[in-house]
Design a protein that fits this description.
Length: 415
């Protein structure tokens, strides 16, 4: 097998140690290799970097093991061509499982070009990704706290969430704080309602009649304090994200034109896939990397499971959230796409299909620097005249079953 890289190194990364293997040209056609173990502290990684330099290494491959690869990759990326490798592509030969054997095996795979490097965004996008992911985690934690709050209120017999759509709105927050301070009279609590909620005063009085005890007050007070802390944290993170993403403001505005994608979602998309689409040869490569396209599994002429592959859970969650928002829009291509697939394949697969369309749109928007081009809800009827005629006949039959006589008269075409 041809050797594509003359001086290559491979790292088997763990929490406290790194097993390194270097393969170099030897005598004749033979390959010479050196092995050594290093610590994962900054001092140990600097020693590793100098050791790799001493052998003239040009390419360094490493397995993506949790988060332990990150400090190693970040310290070496400026001096070497670092390649992060998918662990599923690095299956070792059974019976030869040691750290050094793993490093040697990875080294051989890299030098012969048998594995492809994973996508690692540049440093500014990595910083943006850390911020958006942490903000997402804080938003999810806030949602969990609100769910805990409702459970405590249900335990106390307070049915506030059955009357007020937002328990932590202005009116709901005033009622909860009054409960914590010791006010249990439903009449007094209901009078704290503001706006349209005052139209539901009788229902509020009934919902606020319960058994709110001292321990409920302690728990609710702590939940409210935690929610306030999370709101402040989310605001600080959002302000920092605005500063980091400022150089990509034009691309952010273009992504915001996609139905179902708002500013926060556009920030998450940009953080996950980056602004440079040249790293993905086509939109199909991007969809495959993200795990929002059908799997490719065929053998002996038979198509097997088309289950989607695993991708970034952060990107997948963002796309699914955007897809669900897009399906509720009116008169858009994405909502029509969802309705077209849902009848045949169900809600879940139709949602993933819309998520795939959003990602493909984002790919071309970032690649070409143009806003989203809305095709309209009638795109599929215009594209396929045969299906449009069949759809028209089906609608006529439905009206005839209801006892109507249908006469179709086409509208004059608009010039």
């Amino acid at each position: 097998m041809d050797t594509l890289i003359e001086r290559v190194a491979a790292l088997d990364v763990h929490k406290d140690s790194v097993a390194a293997c270097v393969r170099l040209p030897g005598k004749g056609r033979r390959r010479h290799q050196e092995k050594r173990t290093f610590r994962t502290t900054t001092e140990g990684l600097l020693v590793l970097r100098d050791w790799l330099r001493s052998y003239g290494v040009t390419v360094v491959g490493m397995e993506s093991t949790g988060c332990y690869w990150k400090p190693v990759y970040y310290l070496l990326e400026d001096d070497f061509d670092c390649r992060l490798l998918n662990a599923q592509h690095l299956r070792n030969v059974p019976g030869r499982k040691t750290d050094m054997a793993d490093a040697e095996w990875i080294c051989q795979l890299v030098e012969h070009g048998l594995v492809r490097a994973s996508f690692v965004p540049p440093r500014p996008i990595r910083e943006l990704r850390d911020l958006t992911r942490y903000r997402k985690a804080q938003i999810e934690e806030r949602t969990r706290e609100i769910q805990r709050l409702d459970k405590v209120l249900q335990d106390a017999g307070i049915k506030l969430s059955s009357v007020a759509s937002d328990v932590l709105g202005v009116s709901g927050r005033a009622m909860l704080e009054a409960l914590v301070r010791g006010t249990h009279d439903p009449e007094l609590l209901a009078e704290l309602a503001r706006g349209r909620l005052r139209q539901k005063l009788p229902a509020l009085r009934e919902a606020l009649t319960g058994r709110f005890r001292t321990h409920h007050a302690v728990i609710v007070s702590q939940i409210l304090a935690h929610v306030d802390f999370l709101d402040e944290t989310i605001a600080v993170l959002s302000a920092e994200i605005d500063q980091v993403i400022a150089p990509f403001a034009d691309k952010l505005a273009l992504l915001d034109t996609i139905p179902g994608v708002d500013k926060r979602t556009a920030e998450a998309l940009l953080a996950e896939i980056g602004p440079d689409m040249s790293v993905f040869p086509t939109h199909r490569h991007l969809a495959s990397w993200a795990g929002v396209c059908p799997g490719n599994n065929e053998s002996a002429g038979k198509r097997k499971s088309g289950k989607t592959r695993k991708g970034s859970k952060w990107l997948h969650a963002t796309l699914i959230q955007s897809a669900k928002a897009a399906t509720r829009t009116k008169g858009t291509y994405l909502s029509a796409h969802y309705a077209r697939i849902k009848g045949r394949r169900g809600h879940a697969k139709a949602t993933v299909a819309v998520a795939h369309s959003i990602l493909v749109s984002a790919y071309y928007i970032l690649q070409r620097g143009v806003p989203y081009d809305e095709l309209g809800e009638l795109y599929f009827q215009r594209r396929d005249k045969k299906n449009a005629e069949r759809y028209r006949r089906r609608l006529v039959r439905q009206l005839e079953r209801l006892g109507h006589t249908v006469i179709l008269k086409p509208l004059p075409e608009v010039a």
